[in-house]
Design brief:
By secondary structure, this protein is of the alpha/beta class. 36% of the residues lie in helices and 19% in strands. The protein contains 15 helices and 12 strands.
Amino acid sequence: MPLLEVTDLRTLFATEDGTVRAVDGVSFRLEPGRVLGIVGESGSGKSVTCLSMLGLTPRRKTKVSGSAVFKGRDLLTLGEGELRSVRGAEIAMIFQDPMTSLNPVRTVGFQLTEAIRLHGRVPSSEAESRARNALASVGIPNPAERMKSYPLELSGGMRQRVMIAMALLNEPDLLIADEPTTALDVTTQAQVLGLLRDLRERTSASIILITHDLGVIADLCDDVLVMYAGRAVEQGEVRDIFGDPQHPYTWGLLASLPRMNLGARRIRAIRGSPPSLLALPKGCPFHPRCPAAFDRCREERPAAEPVAAGSAHLAACHLAPAERLAARRGGAAAAAAAATDARAPAAGAAATGATARATTGSSTEGSAPVGADGAPPPAAPEDVP
């Protein structure tokens, strides 16, 4: 039985300019003891997905629907009092910016002990002892002195450690970490990720990790949910997403990673920008940026389907498996040729020529091949980590 199962989660914000579809039909499940990474560009709905489950979105002018069943209870149907008993005790969240998440006029010790007392009648001495031990467990030196400090007296890395300690105080079954390494230097990032890894091994807690960093996903997660424009476009185990990505957006994310083994070559960026959630394009929301898009992509929204019978690897893409493979190897021209072959055998001769030119790489060395619309193709196999 999954620890958390989210089904058709939708979050709509009513604004003066119209309705924002921040989360649009997201479904996933998280098994006990596993780490789920949610990745995507800014504005793709990663944080709002988790805030919606916990009832932390603004109550006014917000509509949340679907279900989020945690340990047999649908979080979306719980009252505020019931949700408050779950938040911080059974589900804890590390917010993106610890400077704005911590109260600047209260000491670290006060805020830690408050989190303990809110979820049980605990003597002050015991609460303070647990708070000191929590600070020590996340590597904060001299925890007794740090209990007396205010957030502004701590570095960014120390504040993030305090947030992690606060999240762990009541030993939650699920920890949600929203960009826990944002704005931290590389050394501190590694230390924070090490803390999360140690937490998983020590407590067997499940973790949802929200991040832009695919390197962090590869290092820490078991499963991946790729989001775009409020929707889940691909999901599966880490080895499937990195070893055999099936959605053009995932190819683009992977191709944008700098890699030491490729030498000096230009990093491929995804052209264009994410669409406005006030006015999503018809059909697949990624089609304006996708070099492998064809007519159906512009008219019909793809559903997330298994890439093979019985597979837990899902992708929301109209391209057939053979077309995806052609697109990854040769770019948009190859994808278009494969699609033409599949749908109109009579056009085979022209398509074969296009495929041959695309897959043999007729461009000169050092220049990137382009699709029929002049856009760079999705990641080639050597570009995908």
